[in-house]
């Protein structure tokens, strides 16, 4: 009995690792959020497909578990990396009382990595990844992390910077960070990586404020004290002294 | 004139994305550290290969630039992700005075992601990646970041935890973190991901001290206050309340 929780990367087939592709091909049942299942549609022909819309995370895990307990080989697909704000954690939690089900995480390219590549090389040195969604985390803990990451001069990558209802947390983040790095700090954001409408923008930390271009599909990058623009690319040097 | 800085993932072909594979196949010259060039040997037949041993980073970038300026399509290969402690940053730095050379980063699976997958799902929520190498970063800044990541209850992923000469920084890290999280905190480490001799070990924070198993090829994961062991897997819950 096995469930492979498979990260398919940011978009189309271009980012799908051979390991992830094989996990989907070898499965009998494919579970996932509707959009992600559609992204791998060419690999799932003839297979049983179980999908649910957004926010059905626990339900999807229960469906995957049920199929695995019936003896089906299950591929549970997620965008990006299954292990970074992905479904690998919750799948292990839901299957806690079923140690007979082998749960394997198959990593994929997470938005921090694919987004950084579009912008240049902002994550070359120590960095922190923080989600600004307070759906599952108290806002004060999120902002405490922002503050500490600022104090430590970490490059910061923000997931879920905004949602339709929650639009002010990114501005709060910039306000907190402005105590530790100037508003001219080089930053960037990316949207729809590897999909139609892909956008990557290099800007300053000031430009992140009141920015209506940034939404729930955006990943935001905030440089540290060493991050610079080189020929339009956002680059954090690693510190090679002889360059 | 173009240079693609290509992350090939942790090991063999299993982690190489189609995008990365194509970048190597379409290149005329392949540059990289000897071991990484060997990992993609089946893609480079008939191409000009330029490799140097460890610590020749700047030299490799200069070789890549020289070839690009001659009009050659260059693939500069790195293990993991080219943008996470990879060569994408330094390549942009070295080519700073040549805006006519287009430098593109091709992301790959970094050890934080591939290692986390082997251990279960430790990086499901906010995390910090810190390198313990002081070759290019002052030790006090490294340890300040460790402290702040501890204070912020970030899950922590450590790159370069030790080298032959530098063996005590991981113990220092544990000592600092023990002020913020108990020595019983679930942790793990991985070695040689996707290669011969692959190892993944789940342990406690205490077990990371005086640990002769951990070396420069190891990636270390330190759980936060919510990380738990579920059927032998290291899992950080995202906070779904109804599980």
3D structure, described in words:
The structure is a homodimer of 243-residue chains. With 243 residues, chain A is α/β, with parallel strands linked by helices. In chain A, 27% of the residues lie in helices and 26% in strands. Chain A has a five-stranded parallel beta sheet, sandwiched between helices. In chain A, a hairpin with a 2-residue loop joins strand 12 (228-230) and strand 13. The longest helix of chain A is centred in the N-terminal third of the chain and has 13 residues, at 57-69. Chain A is elongated and about 55 Å long. The interface between A and B is large, with 77 and 77 residues.
In a few lines, what is going on in this structure?
Chain A is an alpha/beta fold and 243 residues long.
Write the layout of secondary structure elements.
Two copies of one chain form a homodimer.
Chain A: E1 2-7, H1 18-25, E2 29-33, H2 34-39, E3 48-52, H3 57-69, E4 73-78, H4 88-94, E5 102-106, H5 111-119, E6 120-121, E7 127-131, H6 139-151, E8 155-159, H7 169-177, E9 186-191, E10 199-204, E11 218-222, E12 228-230, E13 233-235
Parallel strand pairs in A: 1-4, 1-5, 2-3, 2-4, 6-13, 7-8
Antiparallel strand pairs in A: 8-11, 9-10, 9-11, 12-13
Helix pairs in contact in A: 6-7
How far is it from the N-terminal to the C-terminal residue of chain A, by CA?
Answer: 53 Å
Any idea what the radius of gyration of chain A is? 19 Å
Order of helices and strands of chain A: EHEHEHEHEHEEHEHEEEEE
Helical fraction of chain A: 25-40%
Oligomer: homodimer
- In total, how many beta strands of chain A? 13
Unreliable stretches covering 5 or more consecutive residues of chain A: none
- Figure out the total of helices of chain A: 7
Shape of chain A: elongated
Q: What portion of residues of chain A belong to β-strands?
A: 25-35%
Greatest contact between two chains:
A-B, 77 and 77 residues
Please tell me the overall pLDDT of chain A: 95
């Amino acid at each position: 009995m096995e469930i492979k929780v498979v990260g398919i990367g940011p978009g189309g087939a271009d980012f799908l690792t051979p390991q992830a592709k094989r996990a989907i091909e070898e499965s009998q049942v494919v579970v996932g959020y509707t959009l992600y299942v559609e992204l791998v549609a060419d690999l799932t022909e003839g297979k049983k497909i179980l999908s649910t819309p957004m926010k059905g995370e626990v339900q999807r895990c229960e469906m995957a578990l049920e199929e695995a307990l019936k003896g089906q080989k299950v591929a549970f697909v997620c965008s990006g990396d299954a292990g970074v704000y992905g479904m690998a954690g919750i799948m292990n939690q839901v299957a806690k009382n079923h140690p007979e089900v082998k749960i394997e995480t198959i990593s994929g390219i997470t938005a921090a990595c694919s987004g950084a590549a579009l912008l240049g090389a902002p994550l070359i040195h120590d960095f922190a990844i923080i989600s600004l969604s307070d759906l599952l985390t108290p806002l004060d803990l999120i902002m405490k992390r922002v503050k500490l990451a600022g104090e430590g001069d970490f490059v910061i990558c923000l997931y879920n910077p905004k949602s339709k209802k929650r639009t002010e947390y990114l501005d709060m983040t910039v306000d907190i960070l402005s105590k530790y790095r100037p508003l001219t700090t080089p930053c960037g954001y990316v949207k729809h990586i590897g999909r139609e409408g892909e956008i990557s923008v290099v800007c300053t930390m000031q430009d992140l404020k009141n920015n209506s271009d940034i939404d729930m599909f955006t990943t935001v990058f905030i440089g540290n004290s060493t991050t610079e623009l080189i020929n339009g690319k956002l680059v954090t040097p690693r510190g090679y002294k002889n360059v």
